[in-house]
């Protein structure tokens, strides 16, 4: 039996972590659920968790982001409750990426509409010969 | 296909790779295997004195044990990687949460492996994000789809999953 924990990060204007938790409880699946400030953590057998998550994703495909988590929820070595508060390791990356999630959501929406973004042109580095000629041109003759 | 992601704990990359039908290779899987094993010898990550020895495969003995210990975690991911998506200079790799030497070594090993590699920058606005997601989707589409693509049963999650291979 392969037990995993998946982290569901919710960045949606129409969905709250509590709504997702209720849906998860309704499924009556044999999983451990923890509601957090950013979303939900689900622990259970890989197959059960994967299928549950894919059904949850349909509630808001552009507002729900999922990743696996190594530690189970409430793990004493990671949980703030047993570490005298402070952010748990791993939170910082989640926090930095959380700011980008609205942009990613709108990008996914645009992709599904078939919108092709304008690809930025790479900045070409200055040619060495051109640089030499610039230097020569600015040299003050003595 | 198994796609290595860098930063290895990225939520965005992990989600996008899974969304587009591939398997993300993230560090969380390896950490999970370590901490879920019976008997935690060296909490919190269960990196025992044996792990830096596994890291000797990649780095010499005089290299700090932190690098070698981290490389022992990265080893299975690098071995299984069939493609990679790398974000250049992620914020998280700066400071005490990251290890610059390990990150350099991982990026070098990825390039040396000669697997399909996509390099990007983190988006800072909506236009950049559209380009970011589009490039990732095109890159992942160009790869061979995952052999065992999971077909989930939404009505009853307890039922066994049907794999694409079996369906054929």
Question: Explain this structure to me?
Answer:
The complex is a heterodimer of chains A (142) and B (168). By secondary structure, chain A is α+β, with helices and mostly antiparallel strands. Helix content of chain A is 38%, strand content 18%. A four-stranded antiparallel sheet of chain A has the order 2-3-1-4, with helices on one face. Chain A starts with a strand and ends with a helix. Chain B has 168 residues and is of the alpha/beta class. Chain B has a single domain, classed as 3-Layer(aba) Sandwich (Rossmann fold), CATH 3.40.50. Chain B is 43% helix and 12% strand. Chain B has seven helices and six strands. Chain B has a four-stranded parallel sheet, with helices on both faces. In chain B, strands 5-6 form a two-stranded antiparallel ribbon. In chain B, strand 1, helix 1 and strand 2 form a beta-alpha-beta unit. In chain B, helix 4 packs parallel to helix 5. The longest helix of chain B is centred in the C-terminal third of the chain and has 17 residues. The interface between A and B is large, with 50 and 48 residues.
List keywords for this structure.
heterodimer; A: 142 residues; Alpha-Beta Plaits; 5 helices; elongated; B: 168 residues; alpha/beta; 4-stranded parallel beta sheet; two-stranded antiparallel sheet; 7 helices; 6 strands; 43% helix; globular
Brief characterization of the structure:
With 142 residues, chain A is of the alpha+beta class. Chain A has helices at residues 17-27, 46-57, 91-98, 101-112, 128-138, and strands at 3-10, 32-35, 39-45, 64-69. The model of chain A has no long low-confidence stretch (mean pLDDT 90).
User: What is the CATH topology assignment of chain B?
Assistant: Rossmann fold
Largest interface, C-beta within 8 A? A-B, 50 and 48 residues
Write out the strand line-up for the largest beta sheet of chain B, numbering strands in chain order.
2-1-3-4
Spans of chain A of at least 5 consecutive residues whose pLDDT stays below 50 are none
Radius of gyration of chain A: 24 Å
Number of helices of chain A: 5
Mean pLDDT of chain A: 90
Shape of chain A: elongated
Total beta-strand segments of chain A: 4
Instruction: Give the strand line-up of the largest sheet of chain A.
Output: 2-3-1-4
């Amino acid at each position: 039996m392969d037990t995993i924990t998946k982290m569901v990060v919710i960045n949606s204007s129409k969905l709250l972590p509590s709504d997702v938790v209720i849906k998860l409880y309704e499924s009556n699946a044999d999983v451990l659920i923890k509601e957090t400030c950013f979303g939900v953590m689900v622990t259970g057998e890989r197959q059960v968790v994967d299928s549950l998550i894919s059904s949850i994703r349909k509630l808001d495909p552009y507002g729900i982001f999922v990743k696996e988590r190594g530690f189970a929820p409430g793990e004493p070595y990671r949980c703030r409750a047993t570490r005298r508060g402070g952010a748990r390791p791993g939170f910082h990356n989640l926090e930095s990426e959380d700011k980008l999630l609205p942009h990613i959501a709108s990008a996914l929406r645009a992709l599904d509409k078939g919108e092709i973004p304008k690809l930025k042109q790479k900045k070409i580095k200055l040619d060495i010969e051109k640089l030499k000629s610039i230097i020569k041109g600015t040299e003050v003759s003595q | 296909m198994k796609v290595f992601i860098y930063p290895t704990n990225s939520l965005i990359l992990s989600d996008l790779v899974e969304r587009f039908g591939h398997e993300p290779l993230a560090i969380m899987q390896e950490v999970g295997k370590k901490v879920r094993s019976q008997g935690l010898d060296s909490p919190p990550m269960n990196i025992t004195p044996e792990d830096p020895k596994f890291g000797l495969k990649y780095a010499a003995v005089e290299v700090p044990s932190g690098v070698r210990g981290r490389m022992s975690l990265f080893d299975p991911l690098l071995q299984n990687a069939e493609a990679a998506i790398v974000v250049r200079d992620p914020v998280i790799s700066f400071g005490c949460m990251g290890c610059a030497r390990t990150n350099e070594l991982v990026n070098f090993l990825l390039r040396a492996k000669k697997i399909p590699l996509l390099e990007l920058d983190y988006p800072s606005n909506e236009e950049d994000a559209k380009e970011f997601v589009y490039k990732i989707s095109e890159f992942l589409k160009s790869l061979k789809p995952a052999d065992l693509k999971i077909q989930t049963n939404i009505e009853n999650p307890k039922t066994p999953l049907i794999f694409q291979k079996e369906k054929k």
